Input
Amino acid sequence: MSSETETVTMVLVTRDDLKLSKGKLAAQCSHAAVDCAIKSKKNATRLYERWNQSGARKIVVRADDADHLKELNKLARKANLISSLIKDAGHTEIPPGTITVLGIGPATRAAVDAITGDLKLL
Output
């Protein structure tokens, strides 16, 4: 790859207002990562292969709340990026339908950073 901005990455955006256990948060991030990977393998095969062959890079960041995740999802879709907004089934810690995580990518780091670059790392 020619530069760091061309590195293919996936960003998982979590909600800072939900106080999920570490295990629950890990499971929700996993749902987003798997869904984004499946979508990209089907709809952006070359990008998926670049991402997977280079270590399947993932970064986890924080957003304020569900409205923030929805806004970021709109921006990702407007930029034609693969995204996945995860809603919990409600079997354990939170009510059914609670939006927990947004996955974006895989895409070039420059494309993802244009949407999530100002968010803080988890």
